Structures are given as C-alpha cells and as structure tokens.
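Design job #97: recover the sequence.
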C-alpha cells in the first residue's frame, strides 16, 4: 500500500509524518488487500474568519473506487484523529456493501451487459474551458446505476457526484439536497416547447427547480 503525505502552508515534520502513519495504518489495517494508495493532504487555512484552521484530508483508492474523508479543527492532531475515524467507518461500510453485492443473485456486470458504452463523450468537439478555470481533473467514468452513484457519493464525502447513467447513456449528477434526501440532475430532452433551464429530480420522485 502506497502512502503519500503532502502539506499546504505547513511543514511536514517527522513527528507529523509518524503520527499520520500511525493513525492511517490503524484505520486501514483490515482493508490493505483492497487498497492501492492512500493520499493524505494536510493544510492550514490562512483566513482569520475560519475558526477550524487545521485541515486533514484523506483520499483512498480501493478496488477502482475512491473513499474520501475530510475533517478540520483548531489542532492538526485532533483533525487527524477525526479523519482517521471517519475513514475507518467509510471503509467498513464499503466492505459491507461489497459483500452484499457479491452475494446478490444479479451481478452488476450481467445487468449492464446489453447497455451501450459511450467511449467518445466529446464526440469530436474540442473542449473549451473558461479563462477562470485554474484546475482540470480527468477520471474514469464507468456506467453505473443511480443507486451505485449514491453509494459513491457517500464514499467521497462531497455534496455531489457526476456519473454515466447505465440506463440512459447520459451524464447525470446526484447531490445532497439542503432539506434532506438526494437529488438527480439529468439533461433536458430537446423539444420545441421546452424552455431553457435545468430541473433537478429528487431520488424519491418529486421535482424541484435548481
């Protein structure tokens, strides 16, 4: 298992490095056969308006999926304690869901066997980014169901997750709603009566404007 430790606005001392190794290795000790790499990013927010300035972010690459957790406090070691506990919970949940899937009567690969896979998302169009974009990320986007996308959303500790819907072949986004539950954003079908705009469909079935 590869462990990478990086710092922003902070010097990674031997004491900090030893503590990271101790906490992270303990958190992932039962899952090392599934993990290929663990990235730890430590930073200090230089903003007097932010009370919690010491930030610990952990990203784990496990079996083609990503498990991510982030915690912050006024003390870096406390942040590491918090994020290590969160990582352990997420990995345990991931393993339990993986175990349940392996014992399911219908395997994902069988369910998606007849679904077309879109290999060229740009369709010969050159990507154009606005001038204010300062960072670009590329990542694999295998087809998945909405339920599988929701499971990924829980693992990465973000409030949204973009994915390729295996049922429609379109790019969708699932997100956490402010008032509870999850929402699903889909591209609007082109027709003569449609107005410009986007709609967000909640996973439970109701529709709200975004």
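Job complete. Output follows.
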């Amino acid at each position: 298992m590869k462990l990478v430790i990086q710092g922003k606005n902070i010097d990674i001392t031997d004491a900090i490095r030893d503590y990271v190794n101790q906490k992270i290795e303990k958190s992932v000790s039962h899952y090392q056969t599934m993990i290929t790499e663990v990235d730890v990013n430590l930073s200090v927010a230089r903003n007097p308006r932010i009370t919690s300035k010491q930030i610990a972010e952990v990203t784990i690459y496990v079996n083609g999926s990503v498990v991510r957790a982030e915690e912050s406090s006024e003390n870096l070691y406390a942040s590491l304690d918090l994020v290590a506990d969160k990582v352990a919970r997420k990995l345990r949940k991931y393993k339990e869901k993986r175990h349940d899937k392996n014992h399911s009567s219908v395997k994902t690969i069988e369910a998606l066997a007849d679904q077309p896979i879109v290999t060229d998302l740009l369709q010969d169009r050159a990507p154009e980014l606005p001038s204010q974009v300062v960072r670009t990320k590329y990542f694999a986007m295998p087809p998945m169901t909405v339920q599988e996308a929701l499971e990924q959303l829980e693992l990465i500790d973000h409030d949204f997750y973009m994915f390729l819907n295996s049922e429609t072949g379109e790019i969708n986004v699932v997100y956490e709603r402010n008032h509870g539950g999850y929402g699903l954003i889909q591209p609007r079908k082109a027709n003569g009566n449609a107005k410009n705009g986007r709609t967000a469909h909640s996973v439970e079935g109701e529709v709200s404007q975004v």
